[in-house]
Design goal:
This protein is α+β, with helices and mostly antiparallel strands. Helices cover 24% and strands 26% of the residues. It has five helices and eleven strands; from the N terminus they run H-H-E-E-E-E-E-H-E-E-E-E-E-H-E-H.
Amino acid sequence: MRELAARRAHPETGAPVAGIACMAALLGLAALLARSGLLSDMPPPPPATAVATAPPPDWSPVAGPPAVFALPAPELRGLPLVVAARRHREGGHEDVLSWGAFSGDGLHLRLAIRRGDPEPRPPSFFIDLVRHAAEAGFAVTRSGTPVAVATKLGPVETADVAVEEAVERACLAFRSEHPEADLRLLGWLCGSAERPADRAGLACLIDRLQPRPGAEDAMLRAFFAAAEERRLPACLGRTSWLEAPLLRGTIPGTP
């Protein structure tokens, strides 16, 4: 009767007592397992998986780029032209113009024009060319000694090279830098077995390069306007690079 009266006086004491008993039982079981060494045999929890995020690429392609530059040369007329562009994440821009099929046996010209390039220019012409070729899926297998050739844009480095993709072709690589316009040119010209590319023909091709009307870059327009005053007299009035042999010796760098 006294126990029944106590329970009726304190009905809430039943649940806490049961909870304390369960907790004591669990602690006792943990102590027993620890003494027996069973807990030490259990594998540790797996470490948290770190998620690696790749940095964004330096260059990203520009979809549907407008053609900023034109090269109205008779020898390029009728050749398929591919225009591509990409933008550097720090603000540089590159336009790539490619005439003719590299895998064919006719004239092929690849011209990359960079503006506001944040990347430093490699001191070696060969290293610069190899990097550019590799980015485009080509390989440079041989290279001669660079020779400077005069153009309306100023001196241009040139070198006889072998460029390979599905086939290997003998080409004339070129590179020039124009800090006053924040402009860089790099590429190659490949001729045919009957008419190999030469420096005189390359100089006259570069002499025809110009920005398209409506180009928004004022510094670029001013640079090419001044360059027009320095056009090579030997290239004026010439109709095709087939006449380039007649120019040898009349353009500095073309013996």
